[in-house]
Design goal:
Elements (H helix, E strand, L loop, with lengths): L2 H18 L16 H4 L13 H5 L17 E4 L21 E9 L2 E3 L2 E4 L4 E4 L10 E5 L8 E3 L2 E4 L3 E9 L4 E4 L2 E4 L5 E2 L13 E10 L2 E8 L7 E5 L1 E4 L4 E4 L2 E4 L4 E3 L12 E10 L2 E9 L10 E9 L7 E3 L2 E4 L4 E3 L11 E9 L2 E11 L9 E6 L2 E4 L2 E4 L2 E4 L6 E3 L11 E10 L2 E9 L1
Parallel strand pairs: 2-22, 2-28, 4-7, 5-8, 11-14, 12-14, 18-21, 19-21, 24-27, 25-27, 31-34, 32-34
Antiparallel strand pairs: 1-5, 2-3, 2-6, 3-4, 6-8, 9-10, 9-13, 10-11, 13-14, 15-20, 16-17, 17-18, 20-21, 22-23, 22-26, 23-24, 26-27, 28-33, 29-30, 30-31, 33-34
């Protein structure tokens, strides 16, 4: 056993002791109130520390998310327990470091699936702003070791917050996009529609809340959209036109006045500069102006040399595989193993997952997975693993609170048939679409 893996095994054992002390019944024991930088910096609402496990909180019973009118609960922190045993522990193979980080969107539950990496969440600290629990399509930052194949990991901390909330300014249904607070929001086959069938239900003037990955100045690729929402404005994106003396900058079509705002980064201080990704919470909004109450780094990526990092997003600033950016992070993928399509298809706008190690501020990628080439479609994948908690019919059952419809004509059943579905049956469900909050199953595997 290497020194590194021995250290991680000890860390995992220590976490197990912490969770077991007074936790009872496999439910994670809370360790702190407060939470992420956004919550501490003046998120509009705060929720009490929860004793639910992350798996119980991953999918809320309501089929569409935080629900109509939800302003959210910011800054909640808890320790998750009761993992289903999938994933690996801290002593697993591959890279093992507490600083390893993954940034992307939630693709599944049981443990938690982010960017295709299934993280064991037993003992993970959970810091959620705006919402009571994680759901499909929400963006997240996971800190904890993962293997070099980007398949399994062990989460030590999970953070998530709304990326955009405000009134819709314009809708282009034909191009599947709309604008909020001067930011263009694009949707695609991988977008989770939590409480609506799709873009046709987006109305001008309505308040929406969106989770998504910044894809350039003033643009966001939506990973989850909740059409029925309310609350104070939230805007995420790339800092432009920074005027530090005047304490102003812009994101897309809006000027941000942060003169009275709390400003925080990953280490407590945000290194303001053009091109930095931030999340802004506002007290007031006017014509083209947002008066900020808090400005936080948007899931800040680690910069320390030797830190493993895996991120998902659209390629920007492409000058070849040796020089590109994803989520504002400089990437050198010249030596990366490329999968999901030919290397020549990588370019601006192409959605990828890249993983590797940070060196001199650059992610030296060892793997690059192509997820979606703009205009060509793709195969987004969502996955849920666990026992069927409630079963009404093959078209209406739930796993971890997530509604599922497996009644389609093309659904594949493995190790069983549709007739075997029922309450308490353990399955893995995979699908490529979430419509009206319902995961449309493509494949059901009995376990």
């Amino acid at each position: 056993m290497t020194k590194t893996s021995l250290r991680d095994v000890c860390l995992a054992l220590a976490m197990g002791v912490l969770v077991s002390c007074g936790g009872g019944g496999g439910v994670g024991m809370p360790v702190a109130t407060g939470g992420s930088a956004a919550g501490a910096a003046g998120a509009p609402d705060g929720n009490a520390t929860s004793q639910q496990s992350l798996l119980d909180r991953t999918m809320s019973p309501a089929g569409g998310g935080s629900g109509p009118g939800a302003t959210g609960a910011g800054g909640g922190t808890s320790v998750a327990g009761g993992d289903d045993g999938s994933g690996v522990g801290s002593g697993g193979t591959g890279v093992s470091t507490a600083d390893a980080t993954g940034i992307g969107s939630v693709d599944g539950a049981g443990s938690i699936l982010v960017n295709g990496v299934r993280y064991n969440t037993s003992g993970a600290v959970v810091a959620l702003d705006d919402v009571p629990g994680l759901q499909l399509g929400m963006t997240a930052k996971v800190i904890g070791p993962f293997d070099t194949d980007l398949t399994t990991g062990s989460a030590m901390r999970v953070e998530s917050a709304i990326d955009l909330r405000g009134p819709v300014g314009a809708v282009d249904a034909q191009q599947a996009r709309f604008t909020i607070l001067g930011t263009t929001v694009t949707t695609d086959d991988a977008t989770v529609w939590a409480d609506a069938p799709g873009i046709a239900d987006v109305a001008t003037g309505a308040t929406l809340q969106v989770w998504g990955l910044p894809s350039g100045p003033g643009s966001l690729r939506a990973t989850r959209v909740e059409v029925h929402a309310s609350g104070t404005p939230i805007l995420s994106g790339m800092v432009q036109n920074l005027d530090a003396p005047a304490r102003r900058f812009s994101i897309g079509g809006y000027v941000i006045d942060y003169g009275q705002a709390t400003v925080r980064g990953a280490s407590g201080v945000l290194a303001f500069a053009n091109g930095v990704l931030v999340r802004v919470r506002a007290n007031a909004v006017g014509a083209g102006l947002l008066v900020a109450s808090a400005v936080d780094g948007w899931y800040p990526a680690p910069t320390a040399a030797g830190t493993p990092l895996q991120i998902a997003g659209a390629v920007t600033d492409f000058a070849g595989l040796g020089s590109l950016r994803v989520l504002g992070v400089p990437v050198d993928a010249s030596a990366a193993k490329v999968s999901g399509g030919p290397a020549r298809s990588v370019g601006n706008g192409v959605e990828v997952i890249v993983g590797g190690v940070v060196s001199s501020g650059v992610l030296q990628a060892s793997t690059l997975k192509i997820r979606l080439v703009a205009g060509t479609g793709g195969q987004p994948s969502f996955s849920l693993t666990g026992q069927i908690a409630s079963f009404t019919s093959i078209a209406d059952f739930r796993i971890r609170g997530q509604p599922i419809d497996a009644s389609g004509p093309g659904v594949s059943f493995v190790n069983g048939s549709a007739a075997n579905l029922g309450a308490q049956v353990r399955v893995m469900v995979e699908g490529n679409r979430v419509v009206n909050g319902v995961l449309i199953a493509d494949r059901v595997t009995f376990q």
